[in-house]
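Proteins fold reproducibly. Look at a concrete instance:
___
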Amino acid sequence: MSHNAVPSFQGDEYQLRVALHWLIKMISDDTIDYIQGESTGIPGSDNPVDVDDVVVSYNDGKKLFIQAKKSQTDHAKWKINDPKLVPELIKAKSQLESEPESKVCFYSQTPFGDLAKLSEKRPQYLSYKSFDDSAPSTLKNPLANLAKILGVSASEAFEIVSKLEFGPCHTFKEWDRLNLQDIDNVVPNKMSARDDLERMLGNHEAGLRNSKVTINRTDVLKELAERGIEPTPKRDIKELSKELERASTIGRQWTRDIAGEIIDRPELSEIVDLLESGEESILLVDGPGSGKTCLLLDLADHIEQNKNWHLLFIKGDLFSKCESEDDFVKNGLPDDLVGVCARLAEDKKVVIVLDSLDVLSLGRNHTSLKYFLSILDRLSKVSHVSVVAACREFDLNYDPHLRGRKWGVKFLLRLLILIVWLNPCWQRLAVMFLIYQKSCLVYCKTHKIYPSIAKFHLYVMTRIQRQHGNCMIVSLMRSSGKMFF
């Protein structure tokens, strides 16, 4: 780049930072309709745009035309008669004549001296007469100079000053710091968000990527959402973590022992290894009663003990009757669930454990299922967030909402009876089942009873339950029944 081109490049960069400031502001300020960078015209208007660096249009039709000047040539205060400033003041006058309800704002690294002071003190005088009668010469002289430059009377210049504003005199570094701070206050993942918005502005100003004449709030949110960034106010990490902790207690009261014994599932360590390797979506698949819920509960316990991860446990079937987002919040889920997870993911990895997708698919209108699937879709774009869900194999294959979904890993659970048989501590339970099964077969043959396999299986489990008083034995045998029939 030649030396002559450097000032122009720096001027463009300064203008970009000012435009970025207003783009960020638009995310949280719903009074702004749209902004333009390097405006070539106002939609619906034939009037030329004289002050075209940045245009901010409000919902009430009023506009703010922004002129960004990197700095005064000698880095001194701008004077009203500065050769670089005079043309911009004339443009401002012309712009205000074509858009009487609007204002013009000047930005620069160097202060605007007497002109800024005149603009600041102007509201203290209700009319030009009161100004002319009582204003000090330090204000009257700059007004007279401005009137001469603009070719208008002092009273007309007085009215023009009321429509001039002067922004803060930030340096490049100050703009970068403040813009990053402002982004962090409205969206998570501030570095990526800033890069995306700067790229969006650059394409808009250059007319690239089929960019539109204007940028509105919807355009900004869509651009960020494509990269998994959604607006959510910055909050204390401890406060957000407690929200997940409260929600994760729902549905955790679940019997996981058999006759007072706990089965250690080897799949647990395998799932943890997948999460540690960065896997973003894991689906546990098997039939009913195979231990999916117990395994997910064990995983939730493990994650809670891991201080490097945040946990959100969701027992999906407890939300099967929810009809709206408010219903989910009333039943215990955090408000702005995706935003909360995105903010926490800036602190450390977030793992969402979602049980009973298959139960949700049984709902008549699938409202709950659609809600959770939409949450999963949005979370899939958020960095440092992983999802572990569980679903019965039948529903996964035949429910249209689940059938075509892509998962990073589909995890088929091992047969519970094999896990039991390989563990000496549990062999007695497996042998118990075989003994009861044989006695039941003898009974049926003796009395010439020929029940269906399902009824016979149920009869065996009922006898075990009555004898040993633990319904979890029934779950064990239900999951292992296909090994014996």
In short: Confidence is low (pLDDT under 50) at residues 1-7, 417-422, 452-456, 468-485.
